[in-house]
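Marked as duplicate of an earlier ticket. Keeping the data here for the record.
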Amino acid sequence: MGNHSSSHHEPGEQQSSHNTNSAGISGKQPSRTSSDANMTRSPSGADINEKNFSQYVPIEKLSQILHSKTQSQFGVNGIVCEIFVTQLFPNYSDLGTRIFKQLHANSRAKTKHLGTVAFKQQCERYLALMDDNKILEVYVKLYGEPTEDPEKPDFITSDGVKRLLLTCYSIAMAHSTGNGVGALCPQLDRTLNSVVKSIFFSQDSLSLGFVSRWFEQNAIRLVLLVHKYCVHTLTTAYRGLEQSDGFDGGSGLELSTPVLDIKNPFSDSSSSSTSDAHSHKIDDSLMPLSQAWLLAGTLPPLYSRPQAVSSPTANKSTSSAVQIFKNKLAMIPSHWALLYDSDDHGVGANRFLHHVLGYRGPTLVLLHTRDDQTYLIASPNEWKETHLYTGSEGCVVIQLLPKFVILEKKPNILYLNTSIRGYPKGLRAGADPRKPILSVDEHFEKIDIKGIQHELISIEVSFFGHVQYHRTS
Protein backbone atom coordinates (compact mmCIF):
# COMPACT_ATOMS: atom_id res chain seq x y z
CA MET A 1 0.00 0.00 0.00
CA GLY A 2 2.84 2.33 0.88
CA ASN A 3 4.21 1.73 -2.61
CA HIS A 4 1.38 3.74 -4.17
CA SER A 5 0.63 6.40 -1.57
CA SER A 6 4.09 7.96 -1.33
CA SER A 7 4.15 11.32 -3.07
CA HIS A 8 7.92 11.52 -3.39
CA HIS A 9 8.79 8.42 -5.40
CA GLU A 10 11.42 8.81 -8.05
CA PRO A 11 10.87 7.32 -11.51
CA GLY A 12 11.26 3.57 -11.59
CA GLU A 13 11.00 3.04 -7.82
CA GLN A 14 10.37 -0.51 -6.67
CA GLN A 15 10.38 -2.55 -3.48
CA SER A 16 13.57 -3.71 -1.84
CA SER A 17 14.70 -4.86 1.59
CA HIS A 18 16.79 -2.65 3.83
CA ASN A 19 17.89 -2.52 7.45
CA THR A 20 17.95 1.14 8.45
CA ASN A 21 19.67 0.49 11.76
CA SER A 22 22.87 -0.72 10.15
CA ALA A 23 22.97 1.36 7.02
CA GLY A 24 25.62 3.76 8.20
CA ILE A 25 28.59 4.67 6.11
CA SER A 26 30.75 1.89 7.51
CA GLY A 27 30.37 -1.85 7.85
CA LYS A 28 29.18 -4.78 5.77
CA GLN A 29 25.91 -4.72 3.90
CA PRO A 30 23.13 -5.63 6.36
CA SER A 31 21.37 -8.94 6.00
CA ARG A 32 17.63 -9.16 5.46
CA THR A 33 15.35 -9.58 8.44
CA SER A 34 11.60 -9.93 8.89
CA SER A 35 11.40 -6.25 9.86
CA ASP A 36 12.55 -5.30 6.33
CA ALA A 37 9.48 -6.66 4.66
CA ASN A 38 7.64 -3.34 4.55
CA MET A 39 10.68 -1.24 3.59
CA THR A 40 10.77 0.09 0.05
CA ARG A 41 13.69 1.50 -1.84
CA SER A 42 14.05 3.23 -5.18
CA PRO A 43 16.60 2.07 -7.76
CA SER A 44 18.57 5.23 -7.00
CA GLY A 45 18.97 4.25 -3.37
CA ALA A 46 16.30 6.12 -1.43
CA ASP A 47 14.37 4.67 1.50
CA ILE A 48 10.85 5.47 0.35
CA ASN A 49 9.12 5.21 3.71
CA GLU A 50 11.51 7.73 5.27
CA LYS A 51 10.73 11.43 5.19
CA ASN A 52 11.93 13.07 2.02
CA PHE A 53 13.14 16.28 3.63
CA SER A 54 16.47 16.75 5.30
CA GLN A 55 16.85 17.70 8.95
CA TYR A 56 20.05 19.48 7.86
CA VAL A 57 19.28 22.61 5.88
CA PRO A 58 22.80 22.71 4.33
CA ILE A 59 22.38 19.16 3.02
CA GLU A 60 18.94 20.02 1.65
CA LYS A 61 20.36 22.98 -0.24
CA LEU A 62 23.46 21.10 -1.36
CA SER A 63 21.42 18.23 -2.78
CA GLN A 64 19.23 20.64 -4.76
CA ILE A 65 22.28 22.39 -6.25
CA LEU A 66 24.06 19.14 -7.18
CA HIS A 67 20.83 17.71 -8.61
CA SER A 68 20.34 20.82 -10.74
CA LYS A 69 23.90 20.69 -12.04
CA THR A 70 23.64 16.96 -12.80
CA GLN A 71 20.38 17.42 -14.67
CA SER A 72 21.80 20.36 -16.61
CA GLN A 73 25.05 18.66 -17.67
CA PHE A 74 24.03 15.00 -17.90
CA GLY A 75 20.24 15.00 -18.13
CA VAL A 76 20.07 12.67 -15.11
CA ASN A 77 17.43 12.97 -12.41
CA GLY A 78 19.78 12.57 -9.48
CA ILE A 79 23.43 13.18 -8.52
CA VAL A 80 26.37 11.61 -10.35
CA CYS A 81 29.88 11.05 -9.05
CA GLU A 82 31.51 13.51 -11.45
CA ILE A 83 29.37 16.42 -10.24
CA PHE A 84 29.89 15.44 -6.59
CA VAL A 85 33.66 15.36 -6.98
CA THR A 86 34.18 18.43 -9.17
CA GLN A 87 31.88 20.63 -7.11
CA LEU A 88 32.87 19.53 -3.59
CA PHE A 89 36.34 18.00 -3.81
CA PRO A 90 38.07 19.60 -6.82
CA ASN A 91 41.48 19.44 -5.09
CA TYR A 92 41.00 15.93 -3.69
CA SER A 93 39.32 13.99 -6.47
CA ASP A 94 40.47 10.61 -5.15
CA LEU A 95 38.95 11.29 -1.73
CA GLY A 96 35.74 12.65 -3.26
CA THR A 97 35.36 9.65 -5.56
CA ARG A 98 35.83 7.22 -2.68
CA ILE A 99 33.27 9.02 -0.52
CA PHE A 100 30.68 9.04 -3.30
CA LYS A 101 31.22 5.35 -4.01
CA GLN A 102 30.79 4.60 -0.31
CA LEU A 103 27.57 6.64 -0.13
CA HIS A 104 26.36 4.86 -3.27
CA ALA A 105 27.24 1.40 -1.93
CA ASN A 106 25.55 2.01 1.42
CA SER A 107 22.39 3.20 -0.31
CA ARG A 108 22.43 0.03 -2.44
CA ALA A 109 21.29 2.05 -5.43
CA LYS A 110 20.77 0.08 -8.63
CA THR A 111 21.56 3.07 -10.83
CA LYS A 112 24.95 4.69 -11.34
CA HIS A 113 23.64 7.92 -9.88
CA LEU A 114 22.22 8.67 -6.44
CA GLY A 115 18.72 10.05 -6.10
CA THR A 116 18.45 13.27 -4.13
CA VAL A 117 16.55 11.56 -1.32
CA ALA A 118 19.16 8.80 -1.07
CA PHE A 119 21.94 11.38 -1.19
CA LYS A 120 20.43 13.35 1.69
CA GLN A 121 19.86 10.21 3.73
CA GLN A 122 23.43 8.98 3.33
CA CYS A 123 24.97 12.42 3.96
CA GLU A 124 22.98 12.78 7.18
CA ARG A 125 24.23 9.41 8.36
CA TYR A 126 27.74 10.48 7.45
CA LEU A 127 27.42 13.70 9.42
CA ALA A 128 25.95 11.79 12.36
CA LEU A 129 29.24 9.97 12.94
CA MET A 130 30.45 11.16 16.34
CA ASP A 131 32.61 8.40 17.82
CA ASP A 132 36.30 8.83 16.94
CA ASN A 133 36.92 5.11 16.53
CA LYS A 134 33.91 4.73 14.23
CA ILE A 135 35.12 7.65 12.13
CA LEU A 136 38.56 6.03 11.91
CA GLU A 137 37.05 2.74 10.74
CA VAL A 138 35.10 4.56 8.04
CA TYR A 139 38.19 6.15 6.50
CA VAL A 140 40.32 3.03 6.72
CA LYS A 141 37.50 1.16 4.97
CA LEU A 142 37.28 3.99 2.44
CA TYR A 143 40.82 3.18 1.28
CA GLY A 144 40.46 -0.56 1.69
CA GLU A 145 39.69 -3.34 -0.76
CA PRO A 146 36.55 -5.50 -0.67
CA THR A 147 36.89 -9.28 -0.81
CA GLU A 148 35.01 -11.38 -3.31
CA ASP A 149 34.41 -14.05 -0.67
CA PRO A 150 31.66 -12.81 1.71
CA GLU A 151 33.07 -15.08 4.42
CA LYS A 152 36.40 -13.23 4.43
CA PRO A 153 36.83 -9.73 5.90
CA ASP A 154 37.75 -6.75 3.76
CA PHE A 155 41.40 -5.73 3.76
CA ILE A 156 43.66 -2.77 3.02
CA THR A 157 46.95 -2.79 1.16
CA SER A 158 50.11 -0.84 1.94
CA ASP A 159 49.35 1.33 -1.09
CA GLY A 160 45.89 2.07 0.32
CA VAL A 161 47.34 3.22 3.65
CA LYS A 162 49.88 5.38 1.82
CA ARG A 163 47.09 7.00 -0.18
CA LEU A 164 45.16 7.68 3.03
CA LEU A 165 48.25 9.23 4.63
CA LEU A 166 48.89 11.36 1.54
CA THR A 167 45.31 12.65 1.72
CA CYS A 168 45.78 13.48 5.42
CA TYR A 169 48.99 15.37 4.64
CA SER A 170 47.61 17.24 1.64
CA ILE A 171 44.55 18.52 3.50
CA ALA A 172 46.52 19.46 6.62
CA MET A 173 49.22 21.37 4.78
CA ALA A 174 46.85 23.06 2.32
CA HIS A 175 45.17 24.78 5.26
CA SER A 176 48.41 25.47 7.10
CA THR A 177 49.82 27.46 4.19
CA GLY A 178 46.62 29.48 4.00
CA ASN A 179 46.41 29.41 0.22
CA GLY A 180 44.60 26.10 -0.25
CA VAL A 181 47.67 24.45 -1.75
CA GLY A 182 49.63 21.80 0.12
CA ALA A 183 53.24 22.63 0.94
CA LEU A 184 55.77 20.49 -0.90
CA CYS A 185 58.24 18.41 1.09
CA PRO A 186 61.12 16.55 -0.64
CA GLN A 187 61.08 14.00 2.19
CA LEU A 188 57.33 13.30 2.01
CA ASP A 189 57.64 9.89 0.37
CA ARG A 190 60.22 8.80 2.91
CA THR A 191 58.03 9.96 5.80
CA LEU A 192 54.96 8.14 4.50
CA ASN A 193 57.00 4.98 3.89
CA SER A 194 58.26 5.05 7.48
CA VAL A 195 54.65 4.77 8.69
CA VAL A 196 53.73 2.10 6.14
CA LYS A 197 56.75 0.01 7.18
CA SER A 198 55.74 0.29 10.81
CA ILE A 199 52.22 -0.95 10.10
CA PHE A 200 52.85 -3.67 7.54
CA PHE A 201 56.36 -4.96 8.29
CA SER A 202 56.80 -7.41 5.40
CA GLN A 203 53.09 -7.87 4.65
CA ASP A 204 51.40 -6.55 1.52
CA SER A 205 47.91 -6.31 3.05
CA LEU A 206 46.26 -6.43 6.46
CA SER A 207 42.74 -6.52 7.87
CA LEU A 208 40.86 -3.26 8.25
CA GLY A 209 40.57 -3.89 11.99
CA PHE A 210 44.33 -4.27 12.49
CA VAL A 211 45.13 -1.05 10.62
CA SER A 212 42.34 0.82 12.42
CA ARG A 213 43.77 -0.25 15.77
CA TRP A 214 47.25 0.90 14.76
CA PHE A 215 45.95 4.37 13.90
CA GLU A 216 43.84 4.44 17.06
CA GLN A 217 46.91 3.76 19.20
CA ASN A 218 49.41 5.90 17.30
CA ALA A 219 48.02 8.53 14.94
CA ILE A 220 44.23 8.89 15.11
CA ARG A 221 44.31 12.69 14.89
CA LEU A 222 45.77 12.53 11.37
CA VAL A 223 42.59 10.84 10.13
CA LEU A 224 40.11 12.79 12.27
CA LEU A 225 41.36 15.97 10.61
CA VAL A 226 40.26 14.61 7.21
CA HIS A 227 36.78 13.93 8.59
CA LYS A 228 36.65 17.46 9.96
CA TYR A 229 37.44 18.75 6.49
CA CYS A 230 34.80 16.54 4.83
CA VAL A 231 32.10 17.56 7.31
CA HIS A 232 33.03 21.21 6.76
CA THR A 233 32.78 20.69 3.00
CA LEU A 234 29.38 19.00 3.07
CA THR A 235 27.87 21.60 5.37
CA THR A 236 29.26 24.81 3.86
CA ALA A 237 29.85 24.15 0.15
CA TYR A 238 26.32 25.19 -0.80
CA ARG A 239 27.12 28.82 0.06
CA GLY A 240 29.73 29.22 -2.65
CA LEU A 241 27.78 27.08 -5.11
CA GLU A 242 24.63 29.18 -4.58
CA GLN A 243 26.55 32.31 -5.50
CA SER A 244 28.12 30.60 -8.53
CA ASP A 245 31.53 31.32 -7.08
CA GLY A 246 32.36 27.66 -6.68
CA PHE A 247 33.41 26.03 -3.44
CA ASP A 248 36.72 27.42 -2.13
CA GLY A 249 37.85 24.14 -0.61
CA GLY A 250 37.44 24.98 3.05
CA SER A 251 37.63 28.69 3.73
CA GLY A 252 37.37 29.41 7.41
CA LEU A 253 38.45 25.94 8.46
CA GLU A 254 41.10 26.03 11.18
CA LEU A 255 43.43 23.02 11.27
CA SER A 256 46.23 23.02 13.82
CA THR A 257 49.37 21.81 12.08
CA PRO A 258 52.79 23.18 13.03
CA VAL A 259 54.92 24.75 10.37
CA LEU A 260 58.61 25.45 10.54
CA ASP A 261 59.17 28.86 9.01
CA ILE A 262 59.25 31.15 12.03
CA LYS A 263 62.21 32.46 14.00
CA ASN A 264 62.17 33.08 17.74
CA PRO A 265 60.48 36.52 18.02
CA PHE A 266 61.66 37.05 21.59
CA SER A 267 65.37 36.25 21.36
CA ASP A 268 67.74 38.74 22.92
CA SER A 269 68.87 41.19 20.26
CA SER A 270 72.38 41.09 21.65
CA SER A 271 72.54 37.40 20.93
CA SER A 272 70.94 37.69 17.49
CA SER A 273 73.99 38.71 15.50
CA THR A 274 73.65 36.01 12.85
CA SER A 275 73.61 36.98 9.21
CA ASP A 276 70.73 36.31 6.84
CA ALA A 277 72.68 33.48 5.28
CA HIS A 278 73.26 31.91 8.66
CA SER A 279 69.56 32.22 9.57
CA HIS A 280 68.61 30.61 6.28
CA LYS A 281 70.92 27.70 7.04
CA ILE A 282 69.21 27.21 10.41
CA ASP A 283 65.81 27.17 8.72
CA ASP A 284 67.07 24.55 6.27
CA SER A 285 68.26 22.29 9.07
CA LEU A 286 64.84 21.99 10.67
CA MET A 287 63.06 18.65 10.52
CA PRO A 288 61.32 17.98 7.18
CA LEU A 289 57.85 19.50 6.96
CA SER A 290 56.27 16.07 6.51
CA GLN A 291 57.86 14.88 9.76
CA ALA A 292 56.50 17.93 11.57
CA TRP A 293 53.03 17.06 10.25
CA LEU A 294 53.39 13.44 11.34
CA LEU A 295 54.53 14.43 14.82
CA ALA A 296 51.69 16.94 15.17
CA GLY A 297 49.25 14.07 14.70
CA THR A 298 51.03 11.52 16.88
CA LEU A 299 52.53 13.43 19.80
CA PRO A 300 50.29 14.59 22.68
CA PRO A 301 48.39 17.78 21.80
CA LEU A 302 50.57 19.91 24.09
CA TYR A 303 53.29 19.80 21.42
CA SER A 304 51.10 21.34 18.72
CA ARG A 305 48.88 23.79 20.58
CA PRO A 306 49.68 27.26 21.92
CA GLN A 307 50.67 27.33 25.58
CA ALA A 308 51.55 30.09 28.00
CA VAL A 309 55.20 29.78 28.97
CA SER A 310 56.87 32.76 30.64
CA SER A 311 60.50 33.70 30.73
CA PRO A 312 61.98 34.32 34.17
CA THR A 313 63.18 37.68 32.82
CA ALA A 314 59.85 38.77 31.35
CA ASN A 315 59.18 42.52 31.56
CA LYS A 316 56.57 44.97 30.39
CA SER A 317 58.16 45.58 27.00
CA THR A 318 58.31 41.89 26.15
CA SER A 319 54.90 41.06 27.63
CA SER A 320 53.21 43.36 25.10
CA ALA A 321 55.06 41.58 22.31
CA VAL A 322 53.94 38.26 23.75
CA GLN A 323 50.32 39.37 23.69
CA ILE A 324 50.54 40.61 20.11
CA PHE A 325 52.05 37.33 19.02
CA LYS A 326 49.42 35.31 20.90
CA ASN A 327 46.70 37.31 19.16
CA LYS A 328 48.19 36.38 15.82
CA LEU A 329 48.16 32.74 16.83
CA ALA A 330 44.39 32.83 16.88
CA MET A 331 44.53 33.02 13.08
CA ILE A 332 47.63 30.99 12.20
CA PRO A 333 48.85 27.48 13.06
CA SER A 334 51.31 26.75 15.83
CA HIS A 335 54.98 27.01 14.92
CA TRP A 336 58.07 25.08 15.81
CA ALA A 337 61.40 26.88 15.69
CA LEU A 338 64.98 25.69 16.02
CA LEU A 339 66.54 26.06 19.47
CA TYR A 340 69.78 24.13 18.95
CA ASP A 341 71.51 22.62 15.92
CA SER A 342 74.83 20.83 16.45
CA ASP A 343 75.85 21.60 12.85
CA ASP A 344 75.68 25.35 13.56
CA HIS A 345 76.14 25.67 17.30
CA GLY A 346 78.77 22.99 17.78
CA VAL A 347 78.82 19.38 18.98
CA GLY A 348 79.15 18.40 22.61
CA ALA A 349 77.42 18.36 25.94
CA ASN A 350 78.42 21.93 26.81
CA ARG A 351 76.93 23.35 23.60
CA PHE A 352 73.72 21.37 24.11
CA LEU A 353 73.37 22.60 27.69
CA HIS A 354 74.16 26.21 26.76
CA HIS A 355 71.35 26.40 24.19
CA VAL A 356 68.72 24.18 25.81
CA LEU A 357 68.76 24.55 29.59
CA GLY A 358 67.35 28.09 29.62
CA TYR A 359 64.13 27.15 27.82
CA ARG A 360 61.06 26.50 29.99
CA GLY A 361 58.66 24.79 27.61
CA PRO A 362 58.14 21.58 25.60
CA THR A 363 60.99 20.58 23.31
CA LEU A 364 61.62 18.02 20.60
CA VAL A 365 65.13 16.53 20.51
CA LEU A 366 66.03 14.96 17.15
CA LEU A 367 69.01 12.58 17.06
CA HIS A 368 70.50 11.54 13.70
CA THR A 369 72.91 8.60 13.38
CA ARG A 370 75.61 7.77 10.84
CA ASP A 371 73.61 4.79 9.54
CA ASP A 372 70.65 7.02 8.62
CA GLN A 373 68.42 6.47 11.61
CA THR A 374 66.48 9.26 13.32
CA TYR A 375 65.11 9.25 16.86
CA LEU A 376 63.07 11.79 18.76
CA ILE A 377 62.73 12.58 22.45
CA ALA A 378 59.70 14.74 23.26
CA SER A 379 59.99 16.50 26.60
CA PRO A 380 56.94 18.33 27.97
CA ASN A 381 59.04 20.16 30.57
CA GLU A 382 62.27 22.13 30.68
CA TRP A 383 65.50 20.14 30.72
CA LYS A 384 67.41 20.08 34.01
CA GLU A 385 70.64 18.47 35.08
CA THR A 386 69.82 15.93 37.79
CA HIS A 387 70.55 12.39 38.90
CA LEU A 388 66.83 11.60 38.80
CA TYR A 389 64.53 10.58 35.95
CA THR A 390 62.06 13.39 35.28
CA GLY A 391 59.22 14.38 32.97
CA SER A 392 55.47 14.74 33.36
CA GLU A 393 52.73 13.14 31.26
CA GLY A 394 53.62 13.66 27.61
CA CYS A 395 57.14 12.24 27.57
CA VAL A 396 57.59 10.25 24.36
CA VAL A 397 60.48 8.44 22.67
CA ILE A 398 60.00 7.72 18.95
CA GLN A 399 61.98 6.17 16.15
CA LEU A 400 61.24 8.32 13.09
CA LEU A 401 63.42 6.62 10.48
CA PRO A 402 63.74 4.20 8.79
CA LYS A 403 60.33 3.30 10.24
CA PHE A 404 58.00 5.13 12.59
CA VAL A 405 57.73 3.43 15.99
CA ILE A 406 56.63 4.87 19.35
CA LEU A 407 59.19 3.26 21.66
CA GLU A 408 58.08 4.65 25.03
CA LYS A 409 55.28 6.92 26.22
CA LYS A 410 55.02 7.58 29.96
CA PRO A 411 56.16 10.08 32.62
CA ASN A 412 59.53 10.08 34.44
CA ILE A 413 61.58 8.59 31.60
CA LEU A 414 63.98 11.48 30.84
CA TYR A 415 67.47 11.86 32.32
CA LEU A 416 70.21 14.46 31.81
CA ASN A 417 73.44 14.53 33.81
CA THR A 418 76.87 15.78 32.78
CA SER A 419 78.38 16.85 36.09
CA ILE A 420 77.00 14.95 39.10
CA ARG A 421 79.54 12.36 40.20
CA GLY A 422 78.61 8.80 41.02
CA TYR A 423 75.74 8.68 38.51
CA PRO A 424 75.60 7.80 34.80
CA LYS A 425 76.64 10.66 32.52
CA GLY A 426 74.85 11.75 29.38
CA LEU A 427 71.26 11.93 28.14
CA ARG A 428 68.93 8.96 28.61
CA ALA A 429 65.31 8.01 27.97
CA GLY A 430 63.42 4.96 29.15
CA ALA A 431 61.31 3.61 31.99
CA ASP A 432 64.02 1.19 33.21
CA PRO A 433 67.06 3.13 34.53
CA ARG A 434 69.20 -0.01 34.22
CA LYS A 435 68.29 -0.54 30.57
CA PRO A 436 67.15 2.73 29.00
CA ILE A 437 65.74 2.48 25.50
CA LEU A 438 67.97 5.31 24.34
CA SER A 439 71.16 6.74 25.81
CA VAL A 440 73.63 9.36 24.59
CA ASP A 441 77.14 9.28 26.05
CA GLU A 442 78.56 12.18 28.08
CA HIS A 443 80.45 13.57 25.06
CA PHE A 444 77.34 13.45 22.83
CA GLU A 445 79.21 11.40 20.24
CA LYS A 446 77.57 7.96 20.55
CA ILE A 447 73.98 6.83 20.93
CA ASP A 448 72.87 3.45 22.24
CA ILE A 449 69.49 2.10 21.11
CA LYS A 450 68.32 -0.98 23.00
CA GLY A 451 71.90 -2.13 23.52
CA ILE A 452 73.10 -1.39 19.98
CA GLN A 453 75.55 1.50 19.61
CA HIS A 454 75.47 3.98 16.73
CA GLU A 455 77.56 7.00 15.84
CA LEU A 456 75.70 10.24 16.51
CA ILE A 457 76.27 12.80 13.75
CA SER A 458 73.82 15.60 14.60
CA ILE A 459 71.35 16.82 17.19
CA GLU A 460 68.53 19.30 16.70
CA VAL A 461 66.22 20.70 19.36
CA SER A 462 62.97 22.42 18.33
CA PHE A 463 60.58 24.48 20.45
CA PHE A 464 57.36 26.44 20.13
CA GLY A 465 58.12 29.69 18.35
CA HIS A 466 55.24 31.56 20.01
CA VAL A 467 56.48 31.34 23.61
CA GLN A 468 59.04 33.63 25.19
CA TYR A 469 62.53 32.25 25.50
CA HIS A 470 65.53 33.65 27.32
CA ARG A 471 68.82 31.85 26.89
CA THR A 472 71.04 31.64 29.95
CA SER A 473 74.41 33.28 29.64
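See parent ticket for discussion. The first helix runs from residue 2 to 5.
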